């Protein structure tokens, strides 16, 4: 049987043939591929594989040096100690930090007490000023005193009492359900504004939202999920709006505004509940004397159009 060209047998057969008459291998031009096919493993790797095979046949396995294992163990121990020490330092409160925090807490409590005292003193002085003013005007200009009393009731500076309406708004589910998944289920500032504006247009003489008396300079806004009345956050999840005025007339006029239909839509779509209840007696607190930030004198001889043209 003839040997395949290019094998050892074939090359041995061509050893005695002159160079010009020697047969050429078909794959002679593909030396790199021939090397890869005939010698796929580097000689060094082949020797290492042979030694490993011989050691396995003899029943012995190569072992890692004890020095390397000891070094790894020492390194792992050092890293563990460093981690434990760092964790203890981070978790253990330092004496300086605790002392500084306690000092800040004491200062906050002290300043809050001073602010409360000043606010109470301001209320007392405002009441004394109002009393002296009323006594003076009662003897000199009773008509002006009556005008001031009416104005103070309207602008919220003095407390008022009388019959009226109580409108209550509550978050969807009464605050018991997960209203975060449905943002519309929370009462928003625009909802309170809608009810307040409807009450004003219905003839309310004074309005209070969760104990915050509304004045001519009041603002109802929101900050995140909180509703603010004059920068005071309302607790929620229910909001009580109390309005002093004629209950029957206010209730009839309120029903003609767009507030009832608006609240009905909130209830059917988002579960926001609302109620309107007349009351025979309501007491609304006052905010005291307010600071006048801007005033402009008017001339009775100047018409309204001319006054508006002269304004900057």
Automatic annotation (TrEMBL):
Keywords: Membrane, Transmembrane, Transmembrane helix. Pfam families: DUF881. InterPro entries: DUF881. Residues 1-31, 288-312 are annotated as: Disordered. The chain crosses the membrane at residues 66-87. Residues 298-312 have a biased composition (Acidic residues). Belongs to the UPF0749 family. This is DUF881 domain-containing protein. It comes from Isoptericola luteus. The lineage of its organism: Bacteria, Bacillati, Actinomycetota, Actinomycetes, Micrococcales.
């Amino acid at each position: 049987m003839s040997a395949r060209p290019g094998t050892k047998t074939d090359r041995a057969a061509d050893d005695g043939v002159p160079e010009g008459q020697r047969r050429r291998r078909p794959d002679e031009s593909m030396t790199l591929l021939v090397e890869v096919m005939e010698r796929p493993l580097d000689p060094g790797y082949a020797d290492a594989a042979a030694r490993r095979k011989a050691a396995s046949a003899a029943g012995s396995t190569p072992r890692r040096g004890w020095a390397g294992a000891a070094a790894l163990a020492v390194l792992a121990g050092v890293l563990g100690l460093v981690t434990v020490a760092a964790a203890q330092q981070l978790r253990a409160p330092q004496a300086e930090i605790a002392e500084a925090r306690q000092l800040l807490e004491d200062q906050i409590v002290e300043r809050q007490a001073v602010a409360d005292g000043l606010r109470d003193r301001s209320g007392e002085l405002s009441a004394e000023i109002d009393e002296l003013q009323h006594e003076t005007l009662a003897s000199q200009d009773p008509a002006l005193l009556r005008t001031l009393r009416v104005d103070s009731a309207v602008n919220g500076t003095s407390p008022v009492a009388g019959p009226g309406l109580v409108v209550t708004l509550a978050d969807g589910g009464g605050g018991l359900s997960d209203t975060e998944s449905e943002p519309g289920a929370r009462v928003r500032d625009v909802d309170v504004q809608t009810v307040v504006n409807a009450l004003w247009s219905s003839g309310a003489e004074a309005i209070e939202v969760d104990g915050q008396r509304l004045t001519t300079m009041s603002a109802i806004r929101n900050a995140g999920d909180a509703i603010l009345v004059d920068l005071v956050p309302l607790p929620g999840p229910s909001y009580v709006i109390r309005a002093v005025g004629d209950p029957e007339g206010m209730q009839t006029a309120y029903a003609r505004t767009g507030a009832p239909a608006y609240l009905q839509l909130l209830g059917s779509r988002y579960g926001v509940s609302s109620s309107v209840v007349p009351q025979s007696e309501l007491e609304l607190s006052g905010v005291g004397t307010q600071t006048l930030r801007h005033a402009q004198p008017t001339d009775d001889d100047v018409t309204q159009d001319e006054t508006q043209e002269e304004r900057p």
